[in-house]
Amino acid sequence: MGNGYQHQQQAEREAHVRSARKLQLTLLRHGEPDWTPGGGLAVDNAGLTEFGRAQARAAAQALARHGVDAIYVSPLRRAQETALPLAEATGVAPITLEALAEIGLRFGGMTQEEVDRRFVEASRRPLSEHWEGWPSGENFRAFHARVTGGLNHLLALHNITPEPHSEFTIWHHPPDARLSLVIVAHGGTNAVLLTQLLDVQPVPWEWLRFESELAAYSVVQARPLGPRGTVWSLQNFNELDHLRAAGLR
């Protein structure tokens, strides 16, 4: 009886800690893009399909319920159109950051068959060559530096700064920080962001290691290391319940 009561108390304490408002960063991937509008040739900067817009509305409803203090969004159309319903639901104006764009690719004007063939050929290269990025695209090391630099910039806007050590990073922020920040970006961008926040050594296929689905989101929260600062804790990854509830999955 005593042990059961203690377990209940422990569960209640943990539930209270998790529910209390804290410093939180949510990474939302864009909805379904229309890569070949009208069934024609591929475009480089696609907007959302009608299904993708429905996904964006479902994500907005889910995230708005918990409160949002700031929204940062990639400049690409599919991310901008995904952020729009969240902005409308929260009244928070999105801030566009060029650094959050997906890794640079150039497939505009190709048929879907040509695009697929390019990806297959690139995937068969020696692993060391994957650091070069996709053919005629952005170098992965440059992409990683761009995205992580953008992350440090946007967090610094809220007085959240990293303290690099030889093997790990500690983060510092105002002691009363209770912010909910949302980043609306891409599969590759969000994967690199998670790699950086969780102190994981980068590889040139981050979008496979931290693979999130369209309109899914992941959540990290700041956790204290006593008086030394905080680290980021992965609380939710590839959340899809909002899409299931809306009949979109």
H and E string: HEHEHEHHEEEHHEEH
Pairing-aware structural class of the strands and helices? alpha/beta
- The main sheet orders its strands as 3-2-6-1-7-8
Largest sheet: 6 strands, mixed
Tell how many strands the DSSP assignment holds.
8
The end-to-end distance, rounded to whole angstroms, is 43 Å
Describe it.
The protein has 249 residues and is α/β, with parallel strands linked by helices. It has a single domain, classed as Rossmann fold (3-Layer(aba) Sandwich). It is built from eight helices and eight strands. It has a six-stranded mixed sheet with strand order 3-2-6-1-7-8. α2 packs parallel to α3 (77-90) and α5 (140-156) packs across α6. The model has no long low-confidence stretch (mean pLDDT 90).
Describe the structure using short key phrases:
8 strands, Rossmann fold, 18% strand, six-stranded mixed β-sheet, two-stranded antiparallel ribbon, 249 residues, alpha/beta, globular
Secondary-structure map:
Blueprint: H1 2-19, E1 24-29, H2 50-64, E2 70-73, H3 77-90, E3 95-96, H4 112-123, H5 140-156, E4 161-164, E5 169-172, E6 180-185, H6 187-197, H7 206-209, E7 217-224, E8 230-239, H8 241-245
Parallel strand pairs: 1-6, 2-3, 2-6
Antiparallel strand pairs: 1-7, 4-5, 7-8
